[in-house]
Structure to design on (230 residues):
């Protein structure tokens, strides 16, 4: 998901999740992928963007149609399990900030992205 | 700035800047550092968090006391110059989303961060 989320005109909602990972763990990567699949299947999911520095500091922003959609996602059982495991095993620390997106703009070159 | 921003209790404001870089450029790194110094000197700046994947996709979130503080930052002349250069030289694309942070929570291990 190392790409832009295709979000609609504001207003919509965002969850900014910043985290500092412990040592790399293949099980983390698998669970993170599963969590994204689950989020994408939730009502109200608009997309997500994610980046992580080589030292383990990362930011994932997920976008949602409403605060109710975010709350439903938080309550989602599998997600709660992953959050518990994450707290114990995968993160030295994290911050969660829930926001209302008020304005947005962007820019793209004419060229297709080179991957 | 690969660390958590020390933000106050909500509400406050955030600018989520997601970008896809072109090829690495030392001048970009220098200008990015200068821009952060300038932001930090602006009234209303609360902090920033930043991460970038090795393929060039990155997220920087800056936090502000008010929408007026964000607007003043946008108008800051040096910043405008950097934005113009960035559009032409440094980014294949970017998105800017201005948000109001409504809720926040976090977690830290007892251990100090190992750097």
């Amino acid at each position: 998901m190392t790409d832009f989320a295709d979000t609609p005109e504001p207003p919509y909602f965002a969850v900014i999740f910043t985290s500092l990972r412990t040592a790399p763990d293949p099980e983390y990567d698998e669970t993170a992928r599963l969590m994204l699949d689950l989020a994408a299947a939730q009502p109200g999911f608009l997309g997500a963007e994610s980046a992580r520095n080589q030292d383990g500091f990362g930011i994932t922003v997920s976008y949602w149609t409403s605060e109710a959609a975010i709350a439903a996602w938080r309550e989602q059982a599998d997600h709660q399990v992953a959050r518990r495991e994450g707290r114990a095993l995968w993160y030295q620390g994290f911050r969660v900030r829930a926001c209302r997106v008020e304005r947005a703009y962007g820019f793209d070159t004419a060229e297709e992205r080179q991957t």
